[in-house]
Amino acid sequence: MLTDTSAVVLKAVRYSDTNCIVHTYTERFGSTSYLVSRSSGRKSGGLRALFLPLSVVQITTDHRPNKDIQRIREASILHTPMRPSVDPIANAIALFVAELLDRILRSSDCDPQLFAFVTDEIRRMEDVDARSMASFHLYFLGALSWRLGIMPDVEGYRRGDVLCCEEGRFRPAVGRHETERSEVSYLLHKMLTMPRQEGLVIDRNGRNKLLALLLQYFDHHFPGVSQLKSPRILQELFT
């Protein structure tokens, strides 16, 4: 039976000389992989968008739950991010968001609220100013942690506390090595508790340290996040 669903494109992997496996997060089926002909991108704008990370497409599929790889009958474009094609920072952030979501949502079931959150964030990327774009990935991680139910407990924080990834809360620093992490923990707490529209004033070094802490926290919940390749590009941009 043919079914329509919206989908966010996360990754396209070459499968053969003629086909690719496209990883998506769909509104109706959650994480789903599709076999797509590489030549299809030259024939249809909708199918061409399947090769562009963070494109949002409408697809028609004969979805079969017992199959690991599905097939697409038709596809049309709902939204293709334009800013990454003209803004190097937006491009690096888009690649990071796509790689992160592909890692942590790979086996996720249908979650319409999570899907709506992801598509809203993709569209938000088009509208933020240059200063906000530089910290977009940090706010995205913070908002995603809340949406996934893993946001650190911010209650009871005192200046000088550090984030404990294992416990998911802030606690007093123990030893000099933890004291050195108190400043980046302060930045994280501030980011998680202040209105997003106010914007976090942070320099390049602070962004890199905050990204490293957030990735360490996510890796505790989703092993393998620390092995992502795209954060290195972001760190180089902000060096």
Automatic annotation (TrEMBL):
Keyword terms of this UniProt record: DNA damage, DNA recombination, DNA repair
Key word Repeat present: no
Pfam families found in the cross-reference section: RecO_C, RecO_N
Example GO biological process: DNA recombination
HAMAP family on file: RecO
Protein name as it appears in the record: DNA repair protein RecO
Every DNA replication/recombination mediator RecO N-terminal domain range: 1-79
GO (cellular component) term, any one: bacterial nucleoid
Function: Involved in DNA repair and RecF pathway recombination.
Family to which the UniProt record says this protein belongs: Belongs to the RecO family.
InterPro entries membership: ARFGAP/RecO, DNA_rep/recomb_RecO_N, NA-bd_OB-fold, RecO, RecO_C
Superkingdom to which the source organism belongs: Bacteria
